[in-house]
Amino acid sequence: MPDIIQLLPDSVANQIAAGEVIQRPASVVKELMENSMDAGSTVITVIVKDAGKTLINVVDNGCGMSETDARLSFERHSTSKIRSADDLFAIQTMGFRGEALASIAAISEVEMQTRRQEDEVGTQIEIKASTLVSHKPVACKQGTSIKIKNLFFNVPARRKFLKADSTELKHIITEFQRIALAHPGTEFSFHHNNTEILHLPPVNIRQRIMHLFGKNINQQLIDLETQTGVANIKGYIGKPGLAKKTSGEQFFFVNNRFMKHPYFHKALQLAYEKILPSGSIPSYFIYFTADPSTIDINIHPTKTEIKFENERAVWQILNASVKQALGKFNIVPSIDFDTQGLIDIPVSDKDGPVRPPDIPVNYNYNPFEEDKAAGKKGRWRNPGKGKYENWEQLYKDFHEAPSSESASPLETESEDGARKGLFDESAWMPALMQLKNRYILTPVKSGLMIIHQKRAHERILFEKYSEAVESGSAIAQQNLYPVTVEMNSADFAIMSELLDDLSNMGFDIRDFGRNTLVVYGSPAGTEKSDPAGVIQNFLHEYKTSGTSLKEGARENLALTLARASAINDRSLSREEMQEIIDKLFACKMPSYSPDGKPVIDILSIDDLDKKFR
Ligand code: ADP
Ligand code: MG
Q1: In 104-242, which ranges are E strands?
Q2: Which CATH number is 10-202 given?
Q3: Index of the ligand 1 atom closest to the CA of residue 104
């Protein structure tokens, strides 16, 4: 019997390898762009026809190749990037497997022109299905241009498997975006069917994000920066308003290489947990820098999955810095955040006793003396002006400030001073006003704070219910008289499943049989709502939010119940407005409703001044 084992011809091996590396036109775009980056290019042009099915051309101004290298680059395991196994642990470049060009050439028609700076003439090579068609000198610019024509022409099964042009183009743009984001200092352009779709000048990361995703994203980005021994993290996370139901704006980069990292993604998802409804995915652009010897990029053929030596530690750092950035941002409503990052209101030490501010008082002051200078000398000095540590503190000052402010010498110093004192004080009195039964307005030092009353109430109730469900501790307040609620049997079945959790939240609801529930008590804070209405709302919310009873039930329950029991647009008494504000600022995340919509905004004095210019 003859031997049956044979070595595969290279062309077949390459085709098999191609299946791993090249799944679709987008994979070609990625590999070619990465090679261009590795070649030190500063300008890269990507030209695509018919979503890459007929042509992909990547042109760069990088180092180019010698005649020999040009030919060798299409051989399997040919790479200029690794000489020994040790190099594998110090990889900084994108490619290193030396199989991309060989794989691509196995399944397409390739035409390459390349020239190094030191060479007078360049090299042109044509290869079809791994076979050299032509190899000749050519006059060309420094750098490399590689054209891939008729991808998968010799692998009909693959070619058939390609999706509609719109889909393939979407994949190509995704790869293009990832590389463009990883290298903001490089100039890129993208052409499809003879139209330039994108032109990206060399800029910084933030501007690159804006060029790719639109100017408006700028106000939606929160800075992130953490430096630790394990890894450095830099970048931007999106405000809750940027989160979407579908993924797309989630980017991790390690040493300027895009990576997918479901485990780290979870770290973000959890950091946003309390401010995004489940199902929303936060946007992020996060750049890690790590010692190459502490990461493994070799685990995946397309090199998009990267393993860190100390994943758990990085997870913790990431999660904490995102939470911190969100928290910091949460201190400051969006308008102020983008201009200065601080609210110009004096800080009082909330734990210490309230004491009169340290004010230079002019005891020799004579109110009948027409001395304007006295007003200046006695000007109120802000004792502890600085950043606000948290909302609670900010709001405390609404109450504490007037008492200490009344000691202001400005009021008695001069006419000028007196008027000024009054003006300041009026800004400090918690003056409250309701607008359209929907907004609560109150002056703060930096302008006019506007609170969305229903969302504020939702936030308050949401945090309260979440806590209550977690601890199972809420106590029902007995209703004056029990309320009977009748419903259809489907709704009744839903309610019966939720009775335990509802009772943890402070409802006292009992099954009365025959599709009837009796509400004996409701959680404190919802007394003013009609319990039957709350239950009907709750059922409606629960059914339309589309979550199943079991999965994520607790969080959703809190959210649903908060929505169902929050006050609607209605007139509020001064005390009620006060209560909402007090409780809102005692919340962990006062700036956003539980489903991520803004609760607070500040119309700044600057904005007002602009309007009156
Ligand atoms: P790898 O990138 O893993 O080394 P490739 O098959 O992608 O393998 O490329 C093989 C080699 O061809 C590279 O190592 C590099 O030396 C050379 N090369 C490919 N593309 C370019 C380019 N645009 N400019 C200069 N050299 C290139
Ligand atoms: Mg490569």
Answers
A1: 109-115, 122-128, 131-138, 143-149, 187-192, 195-200, 221-227, 232-238
A2: 3.30.565.10
A3: 6
